[in-house]
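It is worth pausing here to work through a concrete case rather than discussing structure prediction in the abstract. The textbook approach is simple: state the sequence, then state the predicted structure, then interpret. We follow exactly that order.
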Amino acid sequence: MICFGNSRVSENLNFNPFRIFKKNEYYRFISHAFVHADWVHLLVNMFVFFSFGNYVENSFANFESENIIVNSKLSFLILYFGGIAIASIKSFIKHRNHSWYRSVGASGAVSAVLFTSIFLSPMEKIYFYGILPVPGIVFGILYLVYSSYMNKKSQDNINHDAHFWGAVYGFIFPLLLDFELLNNFLNSLF
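Step two, the predicted structure:
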């Protein structure tokens, strides 16, 4: 919220691949997730994060109690912060020589949490635009297709690469915790 009225702070924290590449400002791989363009951007990210983060956090706690993972809180932090960084790599590679490029927001991490939720319960309904119930796996496929399409179109100020790669990371993340979770995913589908 501080950055809404202070462009200098926003400029010092945003994701600027050129500055990372040329000035070794690696902190920007994480700091940009704590800066948002406006209230709507912030509120949408936090609504989705809250909606799916609780489920993932509780699932990780269950995994810890079943000795599938050692530390549920640490696992959640790795998911979230890993989502921030991993979602930014493609944009970093693509824009490292473009001094004009900027990106802000936690969308990569939020996409990672959302897609971990989809992996854990692929048939659970997600309400598309808050009204149309769609199985999570169908929503996930549509989300990836849309993000890929919009990235190729590249006519807005949204980092669709971050959405796409955060989602992919989030979907794979449970397998990094325990590859046996793949059986749960497959059994949930059929």
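Step three, interpretation. The chain has a mean pLDDT of 92. Residues 38-94+106-189 form one domain.
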